[in-house]
Write a structure and sequence with these properties.
alpha/beta, polyphosphate kinase like, 4 domains, ten-stranded mixed beta sheet, eight-stranded mixed beta sheet
């Protein structure tokens, strides 16, 4: 079939990246609205949607605002200018937030009350007993921490910190015999006279260091049941505002919150010290342009006028009026309250990796075979064990690793420190530009440097997003290299929540590539060729396109031709256009894309042969798997890269092949499960909208639950086999 180039490259056949991301957040919101989910899991998902939206504004919306301010007119993949995108985003987010708070007010709160948990969202509704407790709590625990700020001629409008909760107040000075209570003549607030006349503006920031949820003493109801009551910290402060501004009459108070541009603007070419430059840029974040203002929907018009003026918000579209508590991320704190486990999905315990269950040495186990690991279904411990054992192992000469996001108390970093103390040569690439982990990574980098590790920060202009570790040992038969490659970060905390895949190998071809990779990023020595690895930014784009085009050729020859790809995001125009060509050539394409997907599936004569699904479940889908039919001899690859311009062109990424037959079978099983999922999967239609499959008369398949069950069953079988082995009678030799 001839390729219709007009169809392939027509912007109308692509979805805008930002709007697609909002669709993903909407799928998370659907989980919060699903009454089949345990109540506290719904709370968690509602919190996640709020957290997602915050990051979306501070990074993506902020970037679009920068483009508009710079007069940038180039259109995106879907034919939209930055200004058009901002308008479409505003419309969609306003509707989305209305749905968020409808879910919270009309569904979540009543359900919580039915379970004996009452959330007081208006301090005026406190009982006399509760009010007394709250006021005492305020004076003892909160009042000493607060810094009330009045704005007048000597006190300018204060800096409002990004994402903090603040209480704005309209106040009027108390007067005694024509003078203010302080004995000084009252002056109008500088620059605010137009906004509020004889009144003044005042505010107080709700302190981040105090718990936002305050639980009141239990109350026994008439039926004998106990009711637990919580109130938000901002409500306690708002109730006691008069104590903070004793010289004023409080006319009105309202809570507000802002989002600032948090995208770092770093000129790495000019930065003599990247570490110091990022430290400086992090400090600049607090003065970033305001891109969003959240206010209570009942806010005093005069207060809103002041906020708009001082925060320099020209467009009303940047203001979000909210019917409920601002910043729903507090619901994660509610989720973590004791006593409600029966309203949660039972916690899953990651299972041991079978190949390592009875092995004293991880190195001897890897020498026997490549070892496959699926987290969080299987434990992340083998990765930690590899680095820990290497740090103490007399035969280990060197350890090299890339660190993109690590936990706050990382056992891997501690093991690297110990390795240095034990005389090992340790190299750690710490990516300082991992967004919102910059401060954490700076601390780890400085700590590793202090311990004596060789710390590098990657290549200029590129983020190092690859996941690779190398252990070099001197063994009896010579030098052997042990390599771990993965789709996820070396983060023991997120490994309990993110689904990722990894392989341990000591195959010489992988070891040689691993050495070349680390030499490349530490010494800028580009290898002539790679044995196994496909590395971005120089080689990965060409490789992806070559693989897709090979399937096109096979389809035209009448050979088996399919592509199955699982990733987080798909928005590269060249890759999508080539997938459209493959579909028109008859290649069957199944895409499992968790988040952003700019491709439109099932469009007649364009993408008839493409299906797109997104899985949103208990765990965050994070693994990348790529399967190409290869004329009946399927090839499987894993990697750190999505099919996005940034991953293909502006990051150091690794995609690697899987050779072991048993591991290929397990990968195919994972893909089959996810393609059959009809509980947590949403399928894209030709309009780009997502819908859950029709379950009527069908067996329910939840791919994540099934993988949990299979991992547990595997462990039980191993224990049973071990027990049987211990009790087997072995006759004594004569």
């Amino acid at each position: 079939m001839a390729i219709n180039e007009k169809n392939v490259f027509d912007p109308g056949n692509y979805t805008n990246r930002e709007l697609s991301w909002l669709d993903f957040d909407a799928r998370c919101l659907n989980e919060a609205r699903d009454h089949d989910e345990p109540l506290f899991e719904r709370l968690k998902f509602l919190s996640i949607t709020a957290s997602n939206l915050d990051e979306f504004f501070t990074v993506r919306v902020a970037s679009l605002r920068d483009q508009v301010n710079a007069g940038y007119q180039k259109k995106d993949i879907a034919g939209m200018t930055a200004e058009q995108q901002l308008t479409a985003i505003s419309d969609k987010v306003h509707d989305f937030m209305n749905m968020q708070y409808s879910t919270y007010n009309r569904s979540i709160l009543p359900a919580l009350r039915n379970q004996g948990l009452y959330v007081i969202s208006e301090h005026e509704k406190l009982t006399e007993k509760e009010a007394a407790y709250v006021d005492r709590f305020f004076m003892e625990q909160v009042y000493p921490v607060l810094t009330p700020v009045a704005v007048d001629s000597s006190r300018p409008f204060p800096l409002v910190i990004n994402k903090t909760l603040n209480i704005a107040a309209l106040v009027k000075p108390k007067k005694m015999k024509g003078k203010s209570i302080t004995g000084k003549k009252h002056k109008k607030a500088a620059g605010l006279d137009v906004a509020i006349g004889d009144y003044e503006f005042a505010m107080v920031q709700v302190p981040n260091m105090l718990p936002r949820i305050v639980e009141l003493p239990d109350e026994t109801l008439e039926n004998g049941k106990k009711q637990r009551v919580i109130i938000l910290l901002e409500e306690i402060i708002e109730r006691n505002m008069a104590l903070l501004f004793a010289n004023y009459d409080i006319v009105s108070t309202h809570i507000f919150r802002i989002m600032r541009n948090a995208d770092l603007d770093i000129d790495e070419e000019e930065a003599t010290d990247l570490l110091e430059e990022i430290k400086k840029q992090l400090k600049q974040r607090r003065w970033g342009e305001v891109v969003r203002l959240e206010v209570e929907d009942t806010i005093d018009k005069r207060l809103l006028k002041v906020l708009r003026k001082e925060l320099e918000l020209e467009s009303k579209e940047d203001i979000y009026r909210i019917n409920g508590p601002l910043d729903l991320t507090f619901l994660m704190k509610v989720y973590n309250m004791d006593g409600f486990d029966y309203l949660k999905t039972p916690a899953y315990e990651p299972q041991p990796v079978p190949a390592l269950c009875n092995e004293e040495s991880i190195f001897s186990a890897i020498r026997k075979q490549d070892i496959f690991e699926t987290v969080p279904y299987e434990t992340f411990d083998p990765v930690v064990r590899l680095i820990k054992d290497a740090s103490k192992d007399p035969k280990t000469l060197a350890i090299k690793i890339t660190l993109y996001r690590v936990s706050g108390n990382s056992p891997i970093v501690k093991a690297l420190e110990e390795a240095t103390n034990n005389g090992k040569d340790v190299t750690a690439l710490v990516e300082l530009k991992a967004r919102f982990d910059e401060e954490n990574n700076i601390q780890w980098a400085e700590r590793l440097e202090k311990a004596g590790c060789h710390v590098i920060y990657g290549l200029v202009g590129l983020k190092t997003h690859s996941k690779i570790a190398l252990v070099v040992r001197k063994e009896d038969d010579g030098i052997r290299r042990y390599v771990h490659l993965a789709t996820g970060n070396y983060n023991d905390s997120t490994a309990k929540l993110y689904t990722d895949l990894g392989i341990f190998t000591c195959k010489p071809s992988f070891g040689e590539d691993a050495s070349n990779f680390f030499n490349m990023i530490s010494g800028y020595s580009e290898p002539e060729n790679w044995n196994e690895l496909v590395v971005a930014p120089l080689w990965l784009r060409k490789w992806v396109l070559k693989k897709i085009r090979k399937e096109i050729e096979n389809a035209k020859k009448g050979l088996p031709a399919t592509i199955t790809a699982k990733m987080n995001s798909l928005c590269d125009a060249e890759v999508i256009g080539t997938l459209y060509e493959a579909s028109q050539a008859g290649v069957r394409i199944n895409l499992i894309v968790r988040g952003i997907c700019c491709l439109r599936a099932g469009v007649p004569k364009l993408s008839d042969n493409i299906q797109v699904r997104s899985i949103v479940g208990y765990f965050l889908e994070h693994a990348r798997i790529f399967r190409f039919e290869n004329a009946g001899e399927p090839e499987y690859y894993l990697g750190s890269a999505d099919w996005m311009p940034r991953n293909l062109d502006r990051r150091i990424e690794i995609v690697f092949p899987v050779h072991e037959t048993e591991i290929k079978k397990r990968l195919q099983h994972i893909l089959d499960l996810e393609l059959a999922d009809n509980v947590k999967a949403s399928i894209m239609d030709e309009k780009g909208e997502y819908h859950h499959p029709d379950l009527r008369g069908k067996k329910q398949i939840n791919s994540q639950i099934i993988q949990c069950m299979e991992a547990v069953q595997q462990t039980q079988m191993l224990k049973k086999a071990e027990k049987s082995k211990r009790h087997t009678f072995i006759p004594r030799k004569k």
